[in-house]
Amino acid sequence: MVDIFQKKVLMLACYAGEIMMKNGAEIYRVEDTIIRICKACRMDNTEVFATPTGIFISLDKGGKDDDPLTYIKRIKGIDTNLEKISMINRFSREFTTTDLSVEDGMKRLEEIDNAKPYPYFMRLIGAAMIAAFFCLIFGGSAVDFFSAFITGMIAYMFSGFLQKYETNFFIRGFCSCALATFIAMTISSSVDSASYEPIIIGSIMIFVPGVAITNSIRDFLSGDMLSGVARMTEAVLIAVSLAAGTGLILNLWSVIGGLFV
């Protein structure tokens, strides 16, 4: 017979791990959070195996007559939201050090999962500022700064448009960087003091998978080879898509000579 409390603990721990995984947390952090939540409920015999696409949990009270309870959760649509990861970390510490009930914990997790991100306008301005200041770092002028600001903003808006239709990350990165490169080449052809190189570099930095690369290295160092390889492969594919989109427009512009401007 299934222990109701054991099942509730299992669902709570898995939900916490799911939120962390969907928002870009490292594998070791996801597994550690799940184990800590289970141990706080006196479920000492807990086994967790997490990958970027799934979480596998098994609970066992340890008694001879107790049956283990296993749960598998498929993870879809991984994004990056460090704020939610931080909120789950705070929840985990609170749950393990206070008398917070499992039911209240589940309500808290639902609030975290449904928390609204920063306003779209703020994220749009942030992306544009990233493009503009990276343009300066790579030797851009004041004209290039404002050009990269506009280019980055348009490219980010286009990427968000594609994401609404659930376009995969490879196509989204390819098309967004192709558009950014086209705009940069158009500006540099129209404005004598504008240079397309720093504008392009600044604009594509918005889409560089820095968190994925960092997490893959962290997974390798933690011994999670499967997750490390998966995330590194994802990061490499994203980088290839960015380079392919940029290179395609540069080659077309070189062949046609900018006559289509």
From TrEMBL:
It is found in: Cell membrane. One of its GO terms (cellular component) is plasma membrane. Pfam families: ThrE. It is a multi-pass membrane protein. It comes from the Bacteria. The keyword Cell membrane applies. Residues 13-252 form the Threonine/serine exporter-like N-terminal domain. PANTHER family: SUCCINATE TRANSPORTER SUBUNIT YJJP-RELATED, UPF0442 PROTEIN YJJB-RELATED. Belongs to the ThrE exporter (TC 2.A.79) family. This is Threonine/serine exporter family protein. It comes from Candidatus Allocopromorpha excrementavium.
